[in-house]
Every structure is written in C-alpha cells, then in structure tokens.
Design goal:
Layout: H1 2-25, H2 34-45, H3 49-90, H4 95-124, H5 129-142
Helix pairs in contact: 2-3, 3-4
Length: 151
C-alpha cells in the first residue's frame, strides 16, 4: 500500500510540475501590453537576451513621453468633437480658434512621429542586419501612409 501511494504521489507531483512548466513556457502575453509586444518582437525577430534587454530598456524609457503624447492626442480629439458639436448646433465656427487648434494638432502629430521614429531607429540599431530588415518590413507594413491632415 505504501509503495502504491508513493507511486501515485510521485505521479501527481510530476504531473503538476510539468503542467506548471508547460504553461509558464507557453504563456501568452497580452498583445496590447508593452510586455506582450516586446515578447512578440523577441520571438518574431529572434532577439538575443542582450538585444531584448536593451530594446526593452529603450521602450520603457520612451514610454512616459509616448503616453503623454497619446494623452494630448486624446485631448485634441475631444476638442475637435467639441468644435464639431458647436458647428452643428449653432452653425457658428470660430475660424481663428480652429486654425490655432489645427496648428497645435499638427505640432503634436509631428512630435508623435518624431518620437516614434527615434524609438524605431534606436531599437533597430540594437539588431543585426537581417533582424533590422525584417523589423523595418513589419514597421512599414503597420505604418499608415502619411499625408495632409484632414482636420
């Protein structure tokens, strides 16, 4: 009886341990989180641990600036919605205020583009040529075409 219990207990421990190891190795990251996106980059671009650590550092360092710019973009979208609501309800447009809004929005868009470009180039500088080529292909495919702003 003791030997049978020991075999069952050992089997249970091995089963639980292999379950935990398997799911930790194959853990899925949230694709909308920075960690998830970086884990995907490491896998997709076959980054070494040193490259991954440096690229993660770059992303974490730029994150506060990019979040601040995202907040400004959200604020500008809310202001644009208010302008549009005023135009629809009162048939009145303050063109000077709207021109100032457009100028501020263009400046924020330019800052977003510059910050993103700097991050992409800094990350690419940590990669070998084949990784860099693949990375630029991914970034180019995900980048919307730039053109004149409609608002």
């Amino acid at each position: 009886m003791t030997r049978g219990t020991l075999v069952l207990l050992l089997g249970l421990v091995v089963g639980v341990a292999s379950h935990v190891v398997y799911f930790n190795v194959h853990r899925q990251y949230d694709p909308d989180s920075l960690d998830g996106q970086l884990a995907w980059m490491k896998s997709e671009l076959h980054l070494s641990n040193a490259q991954f650590a440096r690229i993660k550092e770059l992303h974490e360092a730029s994150s506060p600036r990019l979040r601040a710019l995202a907040a400004q973009v959200a604020q500008m979208q809310a202001e644009f919605a208010a302008f549009e609501n005023t135009r629809r309800t009162s048939d009145r447009v303050d063109f000077i205020e709207f021109a100032q809004f457009v100028e501020v929005r263009r400046n924020i868009d330019r800052e977003c583009l510059d910050s993103t470009r700097k991050l992409v180039l800094a990350a690419a500088s940590e990669m070998n040529p084949s990784q860099r080529e693949h990375y630029f292909g991914i970034v180019a495919a995900a980048t919307p075409p730039t053109g004149p702003s409609t608002n």
